[in-house]
Amino acid sequence: MAVKEGVRGSTLLGAAIVIASMLGAPSARADATCIAAYEQAQTLRKDGKPAAAKAQASICAKEACPALLTKDCNKWLAELETIIPSVVLDPRAPTGGLRADVRVKLDGVALTEKIDGRPIVVEPGSHTFLFEADGAAPVTRTLMIREGEKNKKITVTLAPVADAGPVERPIPLGVWVFGGVSVAALATSAVFAIDGLGKKSDLDECKPRCSPDDVDAMSTRFTFADVALGAGVMAGAATLYLFLTRPTAVGAEATQPPPATSTGTLRPVPFAAPLPGGGAMGFSARF
Prior knowledge:
alpha+beta, Immunoglobulin-like, 3 domains, three-stranded mixed sheet, 12 strands, rod-shaped, disordered N terminus
């Protein structure tokens, strides 16, 4: 096959043309551009780049080039045409319609700014096609294009990018519940503490002949105040935890975990409450 001749043969041919030109043969005038294209066409074909080889062969096939070159170059053009692959870009909207307003890059280099349905010549080998369009998520396809593969259709679907909307962090109900418990418990603690201080003031006047019942009443008030204070602190801590770890919502959709079922995991829930003669605090377990 003439396309596969070595560079040495083309160099000898170029030298022959130069000699002929020096002897005065007008039809064999040496042309450096033609000779370079002649050599490049052979080298590129050997390197597996028939499209680039065809571009060079079309240069040395012109009538302005020496006849010794144009004969081979025209022959190569016909041979290369049969093996150069081509692709047809076919980006689609989710509805199935063809999108023409799509930009495509081939191996990181701009290939086309608009889809017109016509075949596009590419070199054989593995290529990565990147499809981009306004309002759509980019799509990448990596394909093996083989020699002689004509009009290979590359179909992709460009899904629209949904408008995420404002990002919000709604306050969960637990914040209000535990916040209310905390405020009520702290207020209760303050009431009992003030009452206890009042009784302590009365006992200071009757020392050391105070009634044991009055002493017990004062102690009870301070006990209630301490329990209510502990309950308020616990509820306040729970309020702060639930507020800081509240889920994020995008638009109307929140990233909350699914409702717990009987097959879910145990979730500890803090609780605190004053009781007559004391109080209670801790955690309850729920599914």
